[in-house]
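WARN no homologs supplied; continuing
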Amino acid sequence: MENFLRPIYQERASDPKTLGILMMEKTNPNSPLTDNFDIILLIIVKEAEQEWFVKHYESAGETAAMHIVKESTLMDWIDTSSSRRAVEWVINGRVVYDRNEYISDLKRKLRDFPLQQRNLRKAIEFGKLVKSYNEAKALFTSKNYKDAHSKVFYSLHYLARLAVVEKGYYPEVTVWNQVKNIDLEIYKLYEEFIDSREEMEKKIQLMILAMDYVINHRAAASAEHLLNIMRTKGEPWSYAELKTNPFVEPYKLDLSAIISYLEEKEIILPVLEETKGVGVFHRKYRISNF
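OK structure emitted
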């Protein structure tokens, strides 16, 4: 199959807009990492008419998918976890073309996982976590135990991804294999939930209590990206100001859940400002120790 693809990627390599080309091969019969294609060809370009172009091939019974991705789009995927597969293709893919060591530098940056990008990823995962966790609690309270069970499972998954980012790694598709090696506390929570023989109601109740402690313990550090934004001015922030801040864009859909949780834990505090209406106040927020 690679012999068939070689003329294709050699042609792309001759294009001055091409920054690098990576190849990812299927290693198992069932391979979600390669979308079950035998080969993934990732071509990173500086400029293109389409942000992301995909073409499928077949030769001698083998299949391949070619992804041509703009550099800016790929970096957005990396920063916001929009495409975990693409991140793994870059980290683990075999380099077949590297213009001016672009791919080598990119792989090195991913291994280093700079603090600024790490804080952003923590905020993204934390937002998904607290939103899912709050939904699990609400479903449990309303006695919708099967739905609550599903939400607890999703919450554990987001917690696992957060734990991986905290340790300085990018979450992979097989995130629990990562967690098993770097955060046994979270992995044991997962095992207890999966293997528990308690009745469903009791099982969910115990996990909600355990997760409350774990989430609370890491809340301030997980929300550091948002808290740093709030520190940039000495006045309280309205929700609208935070939501429209361009640096909050990657997690703005979960911003309300983050603010609600941080307020509940008194990491941030509400500030009421008078309006023209009697007894009606604008609600703003400030960091509790700032």
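The chain has twelve helices and eight strands.
OK
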